[in-house]
Amino acid sequence: MQAMPWISVDSQADLDGLEQSVCWIDSFTIEYYGTFRDAPYFPSDICRSGYDRKNIYVLHKCDSPLGVCLEMVFVHCDCVSGDFLDKPFVVGRVDTLKRVEIWNGRGAAVMRCARLIYRFLQSEPGRPYFARSDWS
What we know:
Layout: E1 7-8, H1 12-21, E2 28-35, E3 55-64, E4 67-80, H2 82-86, E5 92-94, E6 100-103, E7 109-121
Antiparallel strand pairs: 1-7, 2-3, 3-4, 4-7, 5-6, 6-7
């Protein structure tokens, strides 16, 4: 499986760029999971709340010229909707501390996290993807 390096959403322009790089209507979630464990590739400047919050990993089958799948990690989530995990999108805002808030069509938060990182995969990985011990 070939994957691009991890990309961090650090600004509103980064979030808007990710939103424009995928046809979200024609995309869907393959699998997701949450864990309290941090990974070595997480950004070092995460603004944490002081509470234990899960990191939500989402593997998304996407319609994008950048790859066939998109892996997103919502780091230190304090708000997440199950509907969002099944059919994600990335319309929202990034604040000055690089925290990300994703909104639904009515402007209500459906995902809020301390950081968002992502990478595109060039081929669809085997399943179950997140159960593998060698992914990085």
